[in-house]
Amino acid sequence: MGWEFIFLGANIDAISTAAQMGIESDNAVEYHADQIGTELNFSAVTETVLNYRKEGKINNQWKKQIEQDFKSRS
Fold it and tell me: Which of 4, 45, 60, 70 is surrounded by the fewest CB atoms within 10 Å?
């Protein structure tokens, strides 16, 4: 049906959990469930949806800031 899914996971292994649901690892990310992490998620998802509507695909850099934040604060 042409659907694309993004999986945002806090306090879990987002990549393996997404895989169990058939979501590609490129479309999954783990984040800190706090104000900073949540704000980054909303920003990234907003930008991703806007880009998807223009280009018809998810940019492979969509989760870069979320991953950087998660790694820097882990």
Answer: 60
Radius of gyration, CA atoms only, the chain: 12
Query: pLDDT tens across 12-41, in order?
Result: 999 999 999 999 999 999 999 999 999 999
Whether residue 56 lies inside any domain: the answer is: yes
For residues 21 and 7, the answer to whether their CB atoms sit within 8 Å is: yes
Q: Domain range holding 39?
A: 7-72
Question: Could you tell me the pTM of the whole model?
Answer: 0.89
Could you give the CA distance from residue 72 to residue 11 in angstroms, rounded to a whole number?
A: 16
Q: How many CB atoms lie within 10 A of CB 14?
A: 22
| pLDDT-based confidence at residue 1 (cuts at 50, 70, 90) | confident
Task: Give the contacts of 51 (CB within 8 A, at least 6 positions apart).
Answer: 58, 59, 62
